[in-house]
Fold:
Amino acid sequence: MHTLALRAGARVAVIADEWHNAFCVVTRGRVRLELRDGELGPVLGHDAAFWLRGTGVRALHNPYRRTARVRVITPPGSQALDE
Structure:
């Protein structure tokens, strides 16, 4: 398990090989998804949960003033983000 802190204006790329088994929960603030085609996707708020596998999400954004936190959960033995 890993917690990702996204400060105001931050953008974190979603690299498929690193995030392919990731299940995420927004634990603070709001996060906007950037889709594969560059279009902005939905804004996810506190307690929103989402898979990244097969979704076409290419980045997580925090366009807001408060730091957002996302808990990233991966299966045991997965190399995604936990190393």
The mean pLDDT is 88. Residues 9 and 27 are 17 Å apart (CA to CA). The chain has one domain: 2-73.
